[in-house]
Amino acid sequence: MKRLIRSSNRLVGFCALSLIFCVALQAQSPLNQRLVSGDWLQANLNQPGLRVVDMRADIRDYWSGHIPGAVYLDETALRWPQNGVPGRLIPVEALVRLLEEMGISYKTTIIIYTEINNYRATYLAWVLDYIKHPGWAILDGGFNRWKNENRPVSRDYPGLSRAVYGQKVNPDESVRATLEQVRNRDQRNTVLLDVRSAELFSGERGNWKRNGHIPGAINIFWASFLKEDGTWKDLKMIAENLRAMDITPDKTIIVSCGQGLMASHTYLTLKYLLNYPKVRLYDGSFNEWSNRDDLPVETRQR
Question: Contacts by 87-92 with C-beta closer than 8 Å and gap 24+?
Fold first, then answer.
């Protein structure tokens, strides 16, 4: 009987420790944050239900070495022509099929990385937000920091099979803006933020049919929020600078650029790092707007 009691006590103790471990892991989970560290990812690489996505610009970089288990995704696979306008987000049905081919279901936690914290990773993050995929995060510092910290690197392709997404997708239209919504916006409580370079905004540079910007837009270059190593500048300073430009959390912020890529980075910064509650991405951006002869374009700096 004493032996049985001792065994029961050991079992209870083991269960308690296991519960504490699970709670601690959940507390660090990217389900509760949108940036994860290399320490977190390395500790959880072999966890079931985790998919790492490499979105660096050149697939040859992936061939040369990537985070173990990472699957490669070119961001152009997320976009195709829509009504003749190039570079638009693929339909939800095609997107779900793409995720399934990457072994991703609704319950999968997706960790995205590029070379550093750039806009290819944040574009997929916005897409996942749009389809209400709950578990996603970006690897802070990207592959460059991962490699510089002497973390494991592989040249093997991941062993995966097609998954079933397992959830009907009802897109969250509150995070996406259409051309009509941009054109008819109430400028008293909506800010249109163009995050292209000053030269593109002013019309000095550009390859569109008409160069310049959407009238009423405010220009802040997306990379001005970052340090040279791709990490964010002081968030309090960023927030103060935005307030000085009357870009405040009580307003709806529509972020725009050339074709939605750079804007996705600002979308993540505003929504998840600065906690702006009403942020939308105009993924048609100047790519769509500038080709419409019935819509005005400005060429001066604002």
Answer: 87/259, 87/260, 87/287, 88/283, 88/284, 88/288, 89/127, 89/130, 89/260, 89/283, 92/131, 92/169, 92/171
Name the active-site residue from 127, 193, 220, 257: 257
Where do we find the tokens 């998954």?
A: 163
CA distance 50 to 108: 6
Q: Does 22 qualify as catalytic in the annotation?
A: no
Beta bridge partners of 176: 281
> Of 145, 171, 197, at which residue does a domain stop?
171
Dist CA 288 CA 214 (whole Å): 11
Considering the domain architecture, whether residues 163 and 244 belong to the same structural domain is answered as: no
Per-residue model confidence as pLDDT tens digits over 105-151: 999 999 999 999 889 999 999 999 999 999 999 999 999 999 999 99
Residue 262, token pair as written in the block: 């750079």
